Amino acid sequence: MSQPNQPHQPDPNARTLLFTLTGADRPGVTTTIFEALSLPGVEVLDVEQVVVRGHLSLAVLVTVGGQEHKAVGRAQRAATSLNLQLDVVPGKGDNAPRRDNRLVVTILGNPVLPEAVAAITGRLAKDGANIDRVRRISRYPVTTLELDVSGGDPETLRRELSLEAAAHSVDVAVSPAGLARRGRRLVVMDVDSTLIRDEVIELLAAHAGRAQEVAAITERAMAGEIDFAESLHERVACLKGLPESVLDDVRAAVRLTPGARTLCRTLLRLGFTLGVVSGGFVEVVAPLAEELGIAHVAGNRLEVRDGVLTGRVLGPVVDRAGKAEALRRFAASESLSLSRTVAIGDGANDLDMLAAAGLGIAFNAKPLVRAQADTSVSVPYLDAVLYLLGIPRAEVEEADLADAVS
């Protein structure tokens, strides 16, 4: 009985050559260099190619197979014919060791300045991490750079890069590479000042003429200065006597955060499941969630009697602990581990949820929240979260265009 072919393993001590070509790009460059290297015993180990504003950088790592001088000569003639600069570096084996302990470091800002990149990459080098690849995944409305990094400790890098990010007014995320960034996820968002620009209870309070009073209480609760449940009961009491019809008025007045529709639409295309948890009220949140394709909703309910708000809530308050519990419940219903969840929020009552999720993102949050979340987004565009998940802007726009054409 014949045996299946065994995978070919390159000799880790075999001599190798790294060819790097740079210059003006044109069709046929890649074909020409690989045709030149088509010699007995020469095997391709690695290839990296990038074109920026028509300038090509192509790196090819091959085994030599006893053909070193011939391979170099043929590559040099190919480069000359293409009017490209060629550098050749000899070595041994593949570059597998630099792939150990792989991470993705994402830099997001508006703008991203050279000194910010220098500070972050300098910190990576100081901590013994190597940058294997860099690419830009968005230019508008924010600039996002994604760095493939190896050899760094994720917790150390999160802590130290957050200091550099704060000093240079950018956001930095450190995430595991590989399969951890792929596959279906559950993304759960706070509503007030995250999915929407408003605080629903303040819109309701405006109808009672008590908006400033309620806003002051909300601010203290979001900063963690007072207990959320206590603050909610105090604020809802201000709504006593309002007609139930004001809920329709508030639903019509709610403004989505810029990028919210794009975020939801793109994540749904990718097969993600969405949820919202709110310290606000399901009477307003649920219709909005249905419109955006959000499957899971948790929030507080207002008591209504004879068509009038009583100034009380029904059932247990969805507070800081309640939001984390909702995240766990949503994940269990989708048969997803917590490591496959992403939570987004801005206030102190989101902290437990952000901590429980596989990735906790503070969105335009208070300093207390930014300090404790895995990463933060400090630009007013909710779809910037896509870039932290490794989804390029160009792919989002291509999908939108394809849908529009179809």
TrEMBL record:
<dbReference type="Pfam" id="PF21086">
    <property type="entry name" value="ACT_PSP_2"/>
</dbReference>
<dbReference type="GO" id="GO:0016787">
    <property type="term" value="F:hydrolase activity"/>
</dbReference>
<comment type="similarity">
    <text>Belongs to the HAD-like hydrolase superfamily. SerB family.</text>
</comment>
<dbReference type="Pfam" id="PF13740">
    <property type="entry name" value="ACT_6"/>
</dbReference>
<dbReference type="InterPro" id="IPR050582">
    <property type="entry name" value="HAD-like_SerB"/>
</dbReference>
<dbReference type="Pfam" id="PF12710">
    <property type="entry name" value="HAD"/>
</dbReference>
<keyword id="KW-0028">Amino-acid biosynthesis</keyword>
<dbReference type="InterPro" id="IPR023214">
    <property type="entry name" value="HAD_sf"/>
</dbReference>
<feature type="domain" description="Phosphoserine phosphatase ACT">
    <location>
        <begin position="104"/>
        <end position="174"/>
    </location>
</feature>
<keyword id="KW-0460">Magnesium</keyword>
<keyword id="KW-0378">Hydrolase</keyword>
<dbReference type="InterPro" id="IPR036412">
    <property type="entry name" value="HAD-like_sf"/>
</dbReference>
<protein>
    <recommendedName>
        <fullName>phosphoserine phosphatase</fullName>
        <ecNumber>3.1.3.3</ecNumber>
    </recommendedName>
</protein>
<comment type="pathway">
    <text>Amino-acid biosynthesis; L-serine biosynthesis; L-serine from 3-phospho-D-glycerate: step 3/3.</text>
</comment>
<keyword id="KW-0718">Serine biosynthesis</keyword>
<dbReference type="InterPro" id="IPR045865">
    <property type="entry name" value="ACT-like_dom_sf"/>
</dbReference>
<keyword id="KW-0479">Metal-binding</keyword>
<dbReference type="InterPro" id="IPR049148">
    <property type="entry name" value="PSP_ACT"/>
</dbReference>
<dbReference type="InterPro" id="IPR004469">
    <property type="entry name" value="PSP"/>
</dbReference>
